[in-house]
Amino acid sequence: xxxxxxxxxxxxxxxxxxxxxxxxxxxxxxxxxxxxxxxxxxxxxxxxxxxxxxxxxxxxxxxxxxxxxxxxxxxxxxxxxxxxxxxxxxxxxxxxxxxxxxxxxxxxxxxxxxxxxxxxxxxxxxxxxxxxxxxxxxxxxxxxxxxxxxxxxxxxxxxxxxxxxxxxxxxxxxxxxxxxxxxxxxxxxxxxxxxxxxxxxxxxxxxxxxxxxxxxxxxxxxxxxxxxxxxxxxxxxxxxxxxxxxxxxxxxxxxxxxxxxxxxxxxxxxxxxxxxxxxxxxxxxxxxxxxxxxxxxxxxxxxxxxxxxxxxxxxxxxxxxxxxxxxxxxxxxxxxxxxxxxxxxxxx
Length: 348
Description:
The protein has helices spanning 11-28, 33-50, 61-72, 93-113, 143-157, 171-184, 188-192, 224-241, 261-272, 285-298, 303-310, 328-334; strands at 75-76, 89-90, 126-128, 134-136, 199-202, 205-211, 217-221, 335-336, 340-341. By secondary structure, the chain is mostly helical. It has a 3-stranded antiparallel β-sheet, with no helix packed on it. A two-stranded antiparallel sheet has the order 1-2. The longest helix is centred in the first third of the chain and has 21 residues, at 93-113. It is globular.
């Protein structure tokens, strides 16, 4: 359940309040002084890696993933002697796992205290392993799973209303959310923050002007099937939900409010329920972002084009948005650019 009123604290402010609470627990005996200092050190490190002046509620699972992986690569001066040549060793697997637990405890408290609408740890994909420290788990849908979800969304967009109040119909909105996430891969905050006026036509192609991190904007062309559902939603779906409260917001709840980030997962789950069980796999909004990147790169789409679609500052970040797909190496070799297409006979 989301807090009714979220406090827009900066990361630095939230960490200071949390550390004050943790240290106060030592006075009552609820927490050992050593444990309190570990929590305090870890969350201060988290704040430095995440950005002190960022608003805590603006961080999503992708941001926390990035911080966890940056911590894993952070030199540990205390372990310099363990490395031949005396250079600073990286964080041990145990330190990485401890840091993740500290961050998780911090966000649990933040959710209870009303500092975040949704605990971003629910969508974090970096997990602790017994060996090797923190690793990103597989998150991209396979071709078959993604096709099942996209197909269900497209069917939903053409469904005729059956029962219920006409001013609470969300089929077109839900279909649009899933199609945009799967085809364009925006951050969930970019999608929920979008306004109707951010979409425009240029030379017959629908574009979305996305306002991303760091004040950067990017214009991304929408595939025709997505543009068609967008136009249908703007013409038929959104007017049903509009209560005059949010005149600019693209995505509205049935109460006419701008859709919150935490609501998007419920939309995905509703569409997933329409997919046949054999092709169904749970996925988060961030997982659909990974799905977009993985399939675009597997299709040999130019890496810089994928970077611009996703809104990354440099190509190096794409590495963590790339999952291996079953059979993709075999498919790549069959369409080798130097040898032409090859459809070999089955090996007996």
